[in-house]
Specification:
This protein is of the alpha+beta class. It has nine helices and four strands; from the N terminus they run βαβααββαααααα. It has two domains: about 1-85 and about 195-210, Glutaredoxin (3-Layer(aba) Sandwich); about 90-195, Up-down Bundle (Glutathione S-transferase Yfyf (Class Pi), Chain A, domain 2), CATH 1.20.1050.10. The two termini are about 30 Å apart. The structure holds glutathione. The site of glutathione has 9 residues, from α4. One of its GO terms (molecular function) is transferase activity.
Length: about 210
C-alpha cells in the first residue's frame, strides 16, 4: 500500500495548500489507494523521518521499499504510470512534463516568495521594500501564463500533471486578489479544482485539521 506523509495540523493560512495535496490529487486521479502518515514537528525533526525527507518536510511517498520526497518528483512518479496524468505519445508526454517544471520552476518560485512575505514577514522592513517587485513579477508571470493558455480548457488541451501542479501553485495566491486580473486563468484554476479527484484530495488533507478544530 502506498503511504504518504502529511501534517497533523497546520495554521489556517496553510490548510488546503500543504504540498501533500498535490500527491493526494495525483493518487486520486490515478485511482491509487493510499494511507497517510500524519506527523508533527517532533516527528519532522526525528532521524527516522530525515532518512525519508532530508529537509524534514512533507510530503514523503513510500511504496514497497521505495521512498521519495519532493512533491514534483512524486507527482511525476505517479503520473508515469497513468495516462490520465501523462499522455502516452512521446511529444504530448514531453510537453506535459515541461508544464510540470514550468509550474514549479517558473511560477511557484515567484508565488512562494510573495506568500512568504505576506504570511511570514508582513511587518518586516525588508519585506515592505521588496514586496512591490515580487508582486510585479507574479503579475507578469500570470499574464504570460494567461496568454499561453488562451481559450484552451487546459494547458495542453487535455488535463495533465502539468495542470495539476499549476493549479496547486496558483492556489498559493488565495490570500491575494491577483488572479482576479486574469479571469481566464482564474476560470482554469477553478475548472481544475472542480475535478472530483481534487475535491477528494482536498477533503482528505482537511480532515485531520477539522477533526482537531480550527
Ligand atoms: N520542494 C518541496 C517543498 C516541500 C514543502 O515546502 N513542504 C512544506 C509544507 S507545504 C513543509 O513541510 N514545511 C515545513 C518545514 O519546512 O519545516 C516539495 O515540493 O515537496
Amino acid at each position: 500500500m502506498i503511504r504518504i506523509s502529511a501534517f497533523k495540523w497546520v495554521p489556517p493560512f496553510a490548510q488546503g495548500v500543504v504540498r501533500d495535496l498535490r500527491v493526494r490529487w495525483a493518487l486520486e486521479e490515478a485511482g491509487l489507494p493510499y494511507e497517510e502518515m500524519l506527523i508533527d514537528p517532533q516527528a519532522q525533526a526525528s532521524t527516522d523521518y530525515r532518512e525519508l525527507q532530508p529537509f524534514g518536510q512533507v510530503p514523503v511517498f513510500e511504496e514497497e521499499g521505495l521512498a521519495l520526497f519532493e512533491s514534483g518528483a512524486i507527482v511525476f512518479h505517479i503520473a508515469s504510470r497513468n495516462e490520465v496524468l501523462l499522455p502516452r505519445d512521446e511529444a504530448g508526454r514531453a510537453r506535459a512534463i515541461t508544464w510540470m517544471f514550468a509550474a514549479l520552476n517558473s511560477i511557484e518560485i515567484h508565488v512562494q516568495q510573495l506568500a512568504e512575505i505576506d504570511l511570514f514577514a508582513p511587518d518586516k522592513e525588508w519585506a515592505k521594500l521588496h514586496r512591490p517587485d515580487v508582486e510585479k513579477a507574479v503579475r507578469r508571470r500570470l499574464k504570460e501564463l494567461a496568454v499561453r493558455l488562451g481559450d484552451r480548457e487546459y494547458l495542453e488541451g487535455r488535463f495533465t500533471a502539468g495542470d495539476l501542479l499549476m493549479t496547486t501553485v496558483l492556489r498559493i495566491l488565495r490570500h491575494t486578489d491577483l488572479l482576479d486580473s486574469e479571469p481566464t486563468l482564474k476560470a482554469y484554476k477553478e475548472r481544475c479544482e472542480a475535478r472530483p479527484a481534487f475535491q477528494r484530495a482536498l477533503a482528505a488533507q482537511m480532515k485531520p485539521f477539522e477533526a482537531r478544530g480550527a
